[in-house]
Amino acid sequence: SLDQNWGKKIAQDINHTYNSVYGVLRPFKDVNNKNNNSNNSKKISLNDIYSPDIYISKYGDLQKMNPEELYNHLIRYGIKEGRVFSYIFDAKFYANKYADLKSAYGNDYMALFNHYITWGFFEGRQASAIYDPNYYLENNLDVKNTLGNDYKSVLNHFFRFGMKEGRLASKDFNVKIYKEKNPDIKKSLKDDMQAY
């Protein structure tokens, strides 16, 4: 089984790396620290955004890994290499979308990941072609009226309901158009909107 302390260990490693290298820019807040004075619902971790199905499907060298090996690979290599492991975070997309991040971090994918989980997510920054939290809110007024700008709750809605319902979550990707333009995939996946 997956070692439950692994996530805490990587957060500590990330904290150490960030403070050692990037502490001059902004101090790193340990988003996994439950004693932090901020509201726990405002925290985000790797586990909140990690999607093993995305990670394993994109890379041939990962196909034979079990879930624990896959997660360990992500922690040890995947994030640093800028591999895509999430519907909502792609380090290369994130850097290219925001000049301030590209200038500050270049292709340091670990630093980009740290920035996103610490600040970018809560600033409502778009970090993948599939999901833009502000676009999702503007195009799903029922979600906006209920959840406001609570980005963690909005993300949870997207994962639990929005993907399955085929709701628009980004101007860069429309699952319904994608489905219609790819009849071979449509035949295989049918109406499983989340699978697209």
Mean pLDDT equals 79
**What can be said about the biggest beta sheet?**
none
Question: What is the oligomer described by this structure?
Answer: single chain
Unreliable spans are 1-40
Record the SSE blueprint.
Elements: H1 6-22, H2 46-49, H3 52-58, H4 67-81, H5 91-97, H6 99-105, H7 109-120, H8 133-138, H9 141-147, H10 151-165, H11 175-181, H12 183-189
List keywords for this structure.
single chain; 196 residues; mainly alpha; 12 helices; 57% helix; globular
Written description of the protein model:
This protein is mainly alpha-helical and 196 residues long. It has helices spanning 6-22, 46-49, 52-58, 67-81, 91-97, 99-105, 109-120, 133-138, 141-147, 151-165, 175-181, 183-189. The longest helix has 17 residues, at 6-22. It is globular and about 40 Å long. It starts with 5 loop residues before the first helix and ends in a 7-residue tail after the last helix. Mean pLDDT is 79; it is low at 1-40.
